[in-house]
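Quick one, T. Sequence first:
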Amino acid sequence: MKLYQREWRSDKVDRLFVRDRSVYNVIRFYKVHDNKQINSINKCQLNYYRCCFEMKVLLLSPLVDFSGNFATVTRIKKGLEKKGLRCFLKCSLKLSRSEDLKDTLDELGIDIILAVHVYKSGKILIDVKIPYILILGGTDVNELTSDHEKMDIMTKAVNNSRHIVAFGESLAVKFKSCWPNYDPMNVSIIPQGVEVFPNSFSITSYIKNHAKDIVTEQEGQPNCLYGCDTDLLIRQLSKSECKIFTIVGGIRSVKNPLFLIKTFSDWRMKQGKVTCWLLFVGAHQNDTFFEKFKEEVRRCPGVVYIPALSTEDAHALIQDSFALVNCSDSEGMALAILEAMALKTLVIARNIPGNTAVVDDGQNGIVFDTPENFIEKVENLLEAPEIIKRITEEAFNYISNKHSVANEENAYFSLLTKYC
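Structure tokens:
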């Protein structure tokens, strides 16, 4: 990193290259009111900022369009850039060899790396000499640690890292159980910041425009939509009669999209709840699993799948849904849950550690154990709008207090400047 070498002189503070306006204004205040104070109080602080503002940070993550990881790392990058750091974002899946990463680091002059996913990013970081910080993704710690080969690779990546970041307490506890010898002083919990940007997206218009794809079923089309009885869904949407239970996330086994489908469809038909719909939104990331999922959707009335939406479209859909549902087998911290809370949409989440770290049953959301338990709780909620209002207000307050974007920005900024 290139550092400023010139000697401190308070009379030249106005010419100093300071990108952070808040710091600049503090310096100007002391310069005007007390020249001695700026020398005694701000000299160390200003030298600190001098070091920071030419720092180059590489953010490394397995980037899948419209995924939670993509949204998270993009938000962190934007926050660090606001602080004056120069940031570069790369997909770890496209840097398949350590040599590819080394070339990137040399070309960009990177000072420090902030990497998401201990395995997918960690495997190309093992031999890197530049300091790096690992952010736990969820799947890496919850699922891949049982694979001995991948565990060996992750252990090397962990041992060579300067610091570990977990989104929540449950993930930090899981990490410590997997790597008990890692210095606990170098493990931090930084909750995800949440920001939402719902636009004018209309699910009614979307399904009207794409329902023809159910008939054509042309493989490879980017906007294929699967389901049955979509004519009924369109009629109900047009009259604002239906209640949509939305599941946002990649169609892959760890998200377990098959968990609720049959039970939900059977309940809907047997109990006459034909205005209730289960809507899946997400990219398919495994062709074999997606085929199995698609066939199940086609067999079950009341269940519809649409491909991944842009962030703004997804936020608008969540805002218009009766509930945001999570039925994953494991989670780090599901961003869609946090976004739903920020949008004042009811969250109904499966009872797994990553979810219950955020969702307090009956307080800021609903937690269920089995598909039958899900149906039981939904039936109660359909008759209790006042309970839903109380829960969603509490969820909104929780997000405002615990998942501030500003706090997230400050935490990562402090962490990076500590090691570089």
